[in-house]
What does this fold into?
Amino acid sequence: MRFDLVDLRLFLLVAERGSITHGAELAGLALASASARIKGMEERLGAPLLERRRRGVVPTAAGQALLHHARAVQNQIEAMTGDLAAYATGLRARVRLMANTAATAELLREILPAFLVAHPGIDIELDERPSHEIAQAVASGAADLGIAATWAGLAHLEQKPFFIDRLVVIAARNRPGLEGRTVNLTELLGESFVGLSTGHALQEHIARQAARLGGRCAPAAHGRC
It folds into this structure.
């Protein structure tokens, strides 16, 4: 049993006006065509949808059930049309945003809700990914925007600073040689670190930098490197 959208709209107009003639006029159909469509709907259903009376027509029990669903479908179509029209006129947009773990957990948690409230016509589709995957996704068009670390190979992409996230070493207050000065990674390569979990994008970046500088920094079972 299949009813197309023209059938449903016609039946809705006929039932609301109580007249096949008036319903056909509003639907832009000839009376003969409208009558044939309604008859076809009744044949496919196997039950009458309208009760013919002297002053018009009224829905049968089956017609009342169809009327309920036809109204729901019509409302959905109107809502869909409104949404699509907003996109077509530039009043609504969907942005595919990819961000690394640091940005998602620490930065966007506060920034994004305020942005969405201020710009109700923009939908943000947020996806958390490692920085190198974000660079690839933006380059291929799989994402519109990305928030990634600068080490992720962004030279071929347009870049704008979003946030400076500095890495620091936490050590005992009385540890010799660390008091009141900036420390380079090369000075600490011989030390044992409590790092992030295996496979974490930031931990992998630190390990690569350590290897490039001639040291070694790889997480072990208990997060040491």
Q: What stands out?
A: Residues 218-225 have pLDDT under 50 and may be disordered.
